[in-house]
Fold each of these.
Amino acid sequence: MKLRTIFALTAAVMIPTAANSQQIDVSSMTCQQFVQNDEAKINLIVAWFLGFYTDEQDPQVLDMSSLNKTRDRFITFCKQQPNFKMTAAAEGLLDK
């Protein structure tokens, strides 16, 4: 839980413009909706998923190269499977 809080705070600091868009419901978001976001929101969503799928014993570091690689994997997958739910895509791409 502590790690998720750190990621949430980091994402909030990294992308202050996301606050203007109220809420992002990743549970109902499809891949098509994901790729239609601007780069800042895409990065925020990917950072959230990385935090959600990070174990507490993992280093509490936001690795920007990992974020970029993961973002590219999500985008590639989502362009091929636009109707997939983001939660299912994340589970397949990030679950260890």
Amino acid sequence: MTEALVLLTQILTITLRAGTSLIYAAVGEIYTERSGILNLGLEGMMLTGAVTAFATAFYTGSTWLGVLVAMVMGMIMASIHAFLTVTMRANQVVSGLSITLFGTGLASFLGERLGPASNNGNLVGMVGPRFSAIEIPVLSQIPVVGALFKQDILTYLLYALVPLAVYYLYKTRNGLNLRAVGESPQTADAMGINVTKTRYLYTILGGMLAGFGGAHLSLAYAPGWTENITGGRGWIAIALVIFAMWNPARAILGAILFGGINAVQFRLQAGGTTIPAAYLNMLPYLMTILVLVIMTWWENLSHRIGAPAALGKAYMREEK
């Protein structure tokens, strides 16, 4: 391969790796919001997922056990959010922000002894097991496209997760029921759909996928634990849901955008650019915000924003 193709392949490889955690969290949030529940607690769930995944893997030697524990943590925090918003009918924005604040503090506390420690003036982090990249023979050697086949196992799982998520949402009765609850819980209830059960189920599923995304960060993308390892990815994932118009397939495009800008800024820093590193670190977030603003403006202009009609609205059967 020519030098340009090698560079493009490397950027695409990093792009996919950087976007993996975002896709997991965004797909989970899409399912949650499709049920009518807004979950602003993704950042806290991803942080607790990341710290518990790394801690579990470090002390047990099992990366898969770490992923499982991260998903359980996401499930527990999402269950709290579901109880507050579905059963207690608390304000969904306030509940989500509380989950993020709680998760951030809890992750900081749990990770206090796991982060980088000083060794003769140098910061040295704990080293544990990780998901290494697995290159698929022949396919990984294809120019540019070969980047798809130089990923870790958690990224490979996305190749199946996203198509299954789209199929389930649009081609199955359960998916139809989910969308019905998000559009009109009163109508769904009259049709015999258990609105409370549906909202609990998909809020918890969203939390589990957020925890999974956090596990990818600490066990594959940047193995180890550092304070605020997510770097705001939970908030970016929420923005991607709007960017994707609540469609799991479109979430991939947003994640690639974020991951691609992230990869480019890393390459620029490695190449010794004169642009200050702080400005380069801002690029992925600035581009995501810019694209989100443009997309929202365009969709509002064309009246096709696609948000579930009952999103953020509490429902009790007695109120029909």
Amino acid sequence: MSFPIHRPRRLRRSESLRALVRETPLAAGDFIYPMFVCPGKNVRTEIASMPGVCQQSVDRFLEECREVEQLGIAGIILFGLPEKKDEQGSEAWAAGAPVQRAVAAVKKAGLNLLVATDVCLCEYTSHGHCGVVENDRVLNDPSLELLSRTALSHARAGADIVAPSDMMDGRVGAIRRSLDQNGFTDVAILAYSAKYCSAFYGPFREAAESAPQFGDRRSYQMDPANAREALREVRLDLEEGADMVMVKPALPYLDVLRAVRRAVTVPVGAYNVSGEYSMVKAAAANGWLDEKRAVMEILTGIRRAGADFILTYHAKDAARWLAE
């Protein structure tokens, strides 16, 4: 029996051949590393559900930033823990709060890192929701002023990118107006445009101490069953002035990521979230999978689906593996 001329395995024969014809590149410069900053000095507390990830005071945080820079990772995104919480989350926009101090510290140190900041209120509010609460309802329009104040405080500290994650309607437009009116026309907005109400945020809520004290976030984060709605959210954010958009989480929403990539010409990011990270860590710790191979496969899959960049807690490990 004659065999076909076409033998795709010819190009899989060696690592050199596989590398030559590889369709989806992956590099340390594709990653943004999420970091958690907290009050105090000489604080570094590992998060139990996220091995290798810590809450850190600004002095210790700078040590890790230097490591991130040396690994060639593009940048960091900052989440903050306040000294105290209140109904409005007023420490979110305080000039001396951990995020603002951390941004300023990176800039003063002259590190070659993009600095993005998460713009939300949930870590700072006593109720744990992402906006103003009245009679157990999260109010959209009153929340926009507080989110704008927060983004502006981050820009004043030196942030390159502000990233609103609250999912209030109109927040991108409100933040863009505030930035522009105060002379920060060059600060970019990365909108969490398609952010789903997901079970995969569990470990993050421990890390950021941001679990809601009542109810859940289904009235403002997206329903996991909806894909067309994601495209609507993306279009609205772009109309309001977003420079980049994001899909969050990544793995359960690769179809959404692909659809967004096809629909827009702006850069598209994906957030490989805490639960996705912790699942791999737990399985690897139990010997159920090869951590390196699993992580690289996951990150390649996210890039292949259409992400220009990936926010991931695996960034440091992946950068090391890519350099081997």
